[in-house]
Amino acid sequence: MKRYLFIILLAISFSVQAQSNTGNYKYIIVPEKFSFLKQVNQYGLNTLTKAFFEEKGFTVYFDNAEIPEEIATDRCKALVVELQENNSMFVTNLTLLLKDCKGAVVIKSKAGKSREKEYETSYNLALKDAFTSFNDFKYVAGSPTVVTNTVPANANTETKTAPTPVNQPVATKTEQSGALLYAQPISNGYQLIDATPKIVMTLLKTSVEDCYISNNGNVNGIVLKKNGAWFFEYYKNNALVSEKLSIKF
Question: What is the Cα–Cα distance from 57 to 22, expressed in whole angstroms?
Fold first, then answer.
């Protein structure tokens, strides 16, 4: 009986720690490029991460974007996303961390895994698997609630100083795409065709509602729904481009 009581108390203490660690945060900052990758938004991981936490109710910015005065003058009001890679020979392993302004780990996900051979698919599936640790992690009216199976940071976690972004703020460029595109279901998402008909883009499902990993044949990005409209977002010349789409599902 004492053993069971100890386990229950331990589980409660983990939940309380996670709650208190995130209770003061409304903002999350996502890097435009994760440290273990070579390109900005490679495999669409950065835009996918941003969309995921926005879906959870947080206000999310890329580290190279213009940010509000509230966090520009006090970075300690925001959590910073870090993605860690620990791959084995046949498995992609990604762990998602949220750090405070001093570099201390506040929340750590489980290791998301994928055995897919194709790089883009494998990295996206591994990240989506890591996201499942945050299924009940939401920002509501100034106080996030955190799922208890998210791994809390412990006292032995290595602390590093959070790097200060050196890039100048880059404004989002919005473009309008006038042609109506028709969504045809495929096994893992949709393909968008024009009136020709010609396939102009593929959309792959993610764990986030109304958010798809996308490729138009030239660039990778995400297609997501904002304020009732669809947008294709990707990086071009180190600037975030948001292209409005007309899609008929």
Answer: 13
Q: Token pair of 129, please?
A: 């698997």
Domains of the chain: which residue ranges? 17-152, 173-248
Which fold, 17-152? Double Stranded RNA Binding Domain (3.30.160)
Nearest to 181 by CA among 169, 168, 170, 190: 190
| Residue 72, C-beta contacts closer than 8 angstroms, at least 6 positions apart | none
Measured distance CA(162)–CA(26) in Å, rounded: 18
Query: How far is the C-alpha of 238 from the C-alpha of 236, rounded, in Å?
Result: 5
- The neighbour count for residue 220, using CB atoms within 10 Å, is 19
Between CA 132 and CA 147 the distance in angstroms is 10
**Whole-model pTM above 0.70?**
no
pLDDT along the chain (249 residues), means of 10: 41 39 76 93 92 88 88 89 91 93 89 91 92 75 44 46 46 64 87 84 87 87 89 85 89
Adjacency order of strands within the sheet including 27-30: 59-62, 27-30, 78-85, 92-99, 105-114, 151-152
Amino acid at 47: T
Other C-beta atoms closer than 10 Å to the C-beta of 193 total 15
